[in-house]
Design goal:
The complex is a heterodimer.
Chain A lengths: L1 E7 L2 E7 L5 H8 L18 E4 L2 E4 L12 E3 L12 H8 L9 H12 L7 H7 L11 H15 L4
Chain B lengths: L6 E3 L4 H11 L3 E4 L5 H6 L7 E4 L9 E4 L2 E5 L4 H5 L2 H6 L2 H6 L5 H4 L4 H6 L7 H8 L2 E6 L2 E6 L17 E8 L5 E8 L9 E9 L5 E9 L6 E2 L1 H7 L6 H14 L10 H23 L4
Parallel strand pairs in B: 1-3, 2-3
Antiparallel strand pairs in B: 4-5, 5-8, 6-7, 6-8, 9-10, 10-11, 11-12
Helix pairs in contact in B: 9-10, 10-11
Classes of the chains: A alpha+beta, B alpha+beta.
């Protein structure tokens, strides 16, 4: 067993874990934060995406011990003071989901991608989400949701 | 999917890591980005009894230029490479290469050195490093040694690294003026391995003749391949369309693909021909200052 201390959504969580425990299982089963989904479990689909030290990563392909001492943000940490993050608002306004399975991953990729608050082209957005699979939407409304969020953040809504 | 149990160490220095490797022998496996190793462990294609995680070793995430040589440290992530101005200005073929590896999320974790050390002929950097004439630094109990990339891949999923050695750095001679390169990969979808991939790096002289050519091939053999006949044919020659056609046919002839779900051997060989010609044309345009 290894003792780890991970900052998740601003709060420190210490735990004794087996080295083989994957970060996604630590988040879902040890911390009970089930917003992060397990999809393909083979690092293809991106449903398990979380932001670790500012970078979007697939938490099914990271060991929990690797997150020791690091900052992890999950979908539960996006909302601040009862207010949706612009990327969440974008998905709400632009109907960026149907079944919602890929959504937490899409949101976390978007959070890391849009932080700079610039004005990405559709091509850049589609490139950014190329590691997140959605089987419902055809991506059209997801791209619109990203654009909505980018505009909102440019206007200082973040 | 849960990997088999393993012991875990996270040394704080390279010397500690080498000592661990020396003590544990073939039981140990190095974890850097983990984007190939962890999926293999989850599928139980690999079950190393001991993981030596080098991610806690400080100072290994550098990309520097010293005396005409680019140095890429063991913990440089693919996304670091993709966004490096130094790489973009000195060695843009690496931007071609990194941006078609897996997907942006995987590239946030995956390391460039790991892409070589994994020894997978389907990985993309080996072909580009062959085209660039790169070398790697291996650190072991007796210190460092420099291994030319040409002799780094002796067999399938095998590298020239000893069990107690760590690949600490990639060294790339910066291409001179009037050089151009391109890496082209045919993939069925984002994140797939190459059906075939071709890396071309050339240098032209004042008359437009080729003074140096490097060509590497991805996933068309049991190891990454260097297309030596095509390289030799191009060297000293004016790069007109007839020369490009003949070089691409030579490269196709040097490939050794096998049939799999991505296509027949004949299809892949022809893909090498087409991609080599396209990459040469793009490399020539870039050597002359075009995009």
């Amino acid at each position: 067993m290894a003792t780890i201390d991970v900052n998740v959504n601003g709060a420190n969580h210490a735990a004794d874990v087996e080295p083989r425990l994957l970060l996604v299982h630590f988040i879902r089963e040890v911390l009970g934060l089930t917003g992060t989904h397990i999809g393909c479990d083979t690092s293809h689909c991106g449903a398990c995406t979380v932001v670790m030290d500012g970078r979007a990563v697939k938490s099914c392909t990271v060991f929990a011990v690797q997150a020791d001492g690091r900052e992890v943000l999950t979908v539960e940490g996006l909302e601040q003071d009862g207010k949706l993050h612009p990327i969440q608002e974008g998905f709400f306004q632009e109907h960026g989901l149907q079944c919602g399975y890929c959504t937490p991953g899409m949101l976390m990729t978007g959070f890391a991608f849009l932080k700079s608050g610039d004005d990405p082209t559709e091509d850049e957005i589609r490139h950014a989400i190329s590691g997140n699979l959605c089987r419902c939407t055809g991506y059209v409304n997801i791209v619109k949701a990203y654009q909505y969020a980018a505009q909102k953040m440019r206007e200082g809504g973040a | 999917m849960i990997p088999r149990s393993f012991e875990y160490s996270a040394p704080g220095t390279l010397n500690e890591a080498v000592s661990l490797l020396q003590k544990l022998g073939p039981d140990a496996k190095i974890l850097s980005g983990g984007q190939s190793l962890i999926p293999m462990m989850k599928l139980r294609l690999a079950s190393p009894p001991h993981i030596v995680d080098i991610n806690r070793i400080p100072g290994l995430d550098y990309i520097t230029e010293t005396s005409g040589v680019l140095r890429i440290g063991a913990l440089v992530r693919e996304s670091d490479l993709e966004h490096s101005d130094l790489i973009r200005s000195r060695c843009p073929i690496l931007i071609d290469t990194t941006s078609v590896i897996a997907d942006p999320l995987v590239r946030n974790q995956a390391t460039v050195c790991g892409n070589l050390a994994h020894g997978d002929p389907a990985n993309d950097h080996p072909a580009t490093m062959l085209a660039l004439g790169a070398s790697v630094i291996a650190l072991g109990p007796n210190g460092e040694r420099e291994i030319p990339i040409e002799s780094f891949f002796p067999g399938l999923f095998t590298t020239a690294l000893e069990p107690d050695e760590i690949l600490t750095e990639i060294r790339i001679p910066i291409p001179p003026a009037s050089s151009g390169g391109a890496y082209l990969k045919m993939e069925r979808k984002v994140g797939d391995y190459a059906t075939a991939g071709v890396a071309v790096q050339i240098t032209l002289d004042g008359s437009g003749a080729c003074v140096n050519a490097g060509i590497g091939l991805t996933n068309v053999g049991f190891t990454p391949l260097k297309a030596r006949k095509a390289e030799a044919f191009l060297t000293g020659r004016a790069l007109d369309q007839a020369a490009i056609k003949q070089a691409s046919e030579l490269a196709a002839g040097e490939s050794q693909p096998v049939e799999d779900i991505r296509g027949s051997a004949d299809y892949k060989r022809d893909l090498v021909r087409v991609l080599t010609a396209r990459a040469l044309n793009l490399a020539i345009t870039r050597a002359k200052g075009g995009a």
